[in-house]
């Protein structure tokens, strides 16, 4: 029997609720494959700020680095909204990503047949969408130096950031996208703004160069403004979208909304070796926190990604994915994905139904 | 009778076709209000590259600066796609915007009742959308210094750009947005990424400060990733969206696609005083250029914006807008907005129908 160390970072808002469900589901599905876990639960985000004064305590980062994989809930809340930048919950998340070096963020956007009506797109446009955004996660304008504030000649305030990519940063995330596309439909659309930005010109050049290592993959390029349009016009045209940190932030949220069920979408953040970070793409939803209303499925599916991409335990991952589909087929829905004729359940009850389905 | 000087920049691809129609419509509508025009037609984009070797000849910029308003078609085409950056048609457009100092780009996205089915969004989501993106156009990462390429310590190539905003750049475009919102529903949503970027922190701070001058306007703030989602989830929540150059590029294209008819959407680029630049938001569509298939309505509506925002000739502008609605009511459609039961027309015939409707 195999044992893994999991760092559990529930975070804020609905984070603890969805993590609790995901942990139960993960345990049960894995146990059927002879897998066991040792968990280390650590504070992060607003919870860590309240406890320790910083959004990512050293102990949390250390525990994460020492683990085999990290399951993370969500961070943020009204309470910390006006904090200075270095004391914002979000800063803790950025420090965690950077500290772990997880440069490749995989964000699948799948329209579940059972939920196609939840999309605001017409049925024929939404049906069958199954795309994956591969977002560069530890570079670009999120981390580029120099950054900050200065005073102009006339005394006015100036704010600035640097969008910067080095060839190797592009190369390694491009390889992740190409490798992933191999397991999918074999098509990569690289999104940039090479008609304006030098950082994008290099991006396009390197992605094109790396593509030569993958003759079986079809590579196309698209400007980011057009990509935002095409996601709305005909999302089915996409298989794998490869893009930088800030464009990936925007496009993956757009892609997720196309599925109509942001409460369903997981993500994985990976590096070549070392533990991966697995989290739902939704936020901490402070408005419904503690009310047992949250949809745990995005976090549950993140646990499935943890098994598949983090530990290479595909069979256990498939058990979780199948249980999610089965539970949807049976008609169980949290409020965010409810439609007439279904059975409305809370976060905990959804968890119990998942356990029954495994 | 009033006379104005108009610089006419047809550009590339379908540019000349749609400009020809817009010019006829502009002339006729204006003549009924006692307005006359002197046109100066100048090369720009790929056409200028072929003719003079640069995408924005000095003479073109001078003629534009000397005019009362500029009507521009579109630029770009396969032929120049592999040109180095300073010889790309797009670079000419950026130089024109910067040279004119038109820092405020107004991009309305309206779902025309006649075309609601053209949207890929469900009828109930698309119906009634009427929003305006106010995009900062001469600053930010499009023009920020330093920018370029350098070599890293390990010899690898690095590409970089600077996202930078000074207080006054933010203040002046914010005022345009607030003033515009006054003529609309009085709500401004400022979009930034203040949880990550210093340039956005300053953006939010200045927009909030300027809002104090407009107590009648309701200001809200939204992160750009969420805005991309909300445009798909519930576009009707927006009245005026105020944002920076790069986010505005992405969000205005997304907003236009929500209307399902990018061939319908005009834009105006303005400064405090001096001539404004008016152009359709669509591109040069080289695949259908010269085939009389282009939809001229975006350029025609840009001519209406030229009258309204550029020359203060509201009555003539209203004549054009009314003619567009009337022509749509009569069922005339170019291919891009065609639906069963309508009358399919080419670019020229659409122009003739518009003249009949005026
Ligand atoms: C919370 C925020 C810093 C974060 C980001 O911008 O990366 C979030 O939007 C995301 O996409 O995970
Ligand atoms: C052609 C390109 C440089 C331009 C931009 O990015 O501003 C275009 O996309 C636009 O939105 O007008």
From TrEMBL, chains A, B:
Transmembrane segments: none
Gene3D superfamilies referenced in this protein's UniProt entry, alphabetically: Isopropylmalate Dehydrogenase
Enzyme superclass (EC): oxidoreductase
Role of this protein: Catalyzes the oxidation of 3-carboxy-2-hydroxy-4-methylpentanoate (3-isopropylmalate) to 3-carboxy-4-methyl-2-oxopentanoate. The product decarboxylates to 4-methyl-2 oxopentanoate.
Species assigned in the record: Cucumis sativus (Cucumber)
GO biological process, one term: L-leucine biosynthetic process
Domain Isopropylmalate dehydrogenase-like: start-end pairs: 5-354
Official protein name in the record: 3-isopropylmalate dehydrogenase
Lineage: superkingdom: Eukaryota
EC number in record: 1.1.1.85
Presence of keyword GTP-binding: no
Pathway where this protein functions: Amino-acid biosynthesis; L-leucine biosynthesis; L-leucine from 3-methyl-2-oxobutanoate: step 3/4
Catalytic activity: (2R,3S)-3-isopropylmalate + NAD(+) = 4-methyl-2-oxopentanoate + CO2 + NADH
Pfam (any one): Iso_dh
CC cofactor: Mg(2+); Mn(2+)
Assembly behavior: Homodimer.
GO molecular function, one term: 3-isopropylmalate dehydrogenase activity
